[in-house]
Design goal:
Layout (H helix, E strand, L loop, with lengths): L1 E4 L5 H18 L13 H9 L5 E5 L5 E11 L10 E10 L8 H15 L4 E4 L6 H9 L15
Parallel strand pairs: 4-5
Antiparallel strand pairs: 1-2, 2-3, 3-4
InterPro entries: Acyl_CoA_acyltransferase, Diverse_Substrate_AcTransf, GNAT_dom
Protein name: N-acetyltransferase
Pfam families: Acetyltransf_1
Length: 157
């Protein structure tokens, strides 16, 4: 297994993995997510692949087939009176094919993201996890992440 930058040839596999992630989210929050859809279209993925501030890293097997990905975004803290400026590397999405889980691919992707963040001069790596996605929460905690802030909602409107 190797981690590399995503290429256009990876889009069909990335779309399959995006479907898997969406289904997890739809199972947790059917009030928000639509089953059978994906977060991005083929055209949107092509555009993201061109954006150096939104890298996609893929884990590929010996046949160079994508078995996992990490969508990332370089974010800069805007200048403000009460905060020092800093850069964050935000993991927008991380997925390992359900058929390939348990092989430490997610750990390898996460370690690659951390190295990339350090190379880009980032202060931190951040991400969001939906409440109810306990397997993701446990995974990220094993990777050394901890809760930074909690977003709350009120939906009885």
């Amino acid at each position: 297994m190797m981690i590399r930058d995503a290429k256009e040839k990876d889009i069909p596999r990335i779309l399959k993995l995006l479907e898997q992630v969406l289904q997890i989210h739809a199972d947790i929050r059917p009030d928000i997510f639509i089953p059978g859809t994906t977060k991005y279209t083929i055209d949107e993925l092509r555009e993201i692949l061109k954006n150096k501030e939104k890298p996609i890293f893929v884990a590929v097997d010996e046949a160079d087939v994508c078995v996992g990905y990490a969508f990332c975004q370089l974010q800069e803290q805007p200048v403000s009176n009460n905060m020092v400026p800093f850069k964050s590397f935000y993991i927008d999405d991380l997925c390992v094919d359900q058929e390939a889980r348990g092989q430490h691919i997610g750990e390898s992707l996460f370690e690659h993201v951390k190295k990339e963040a350090k190379q880009r001069g980032c202060y931190e790596v951040t991400l969001n996890v939906w409440t109810g996605n306990t397997s993701a929460e446990k995974f990220y905690e094993r990777m050394g992440m901890r809760t930074k802030k909690r977003q709350m909602e009120y939906t009885d409107l």
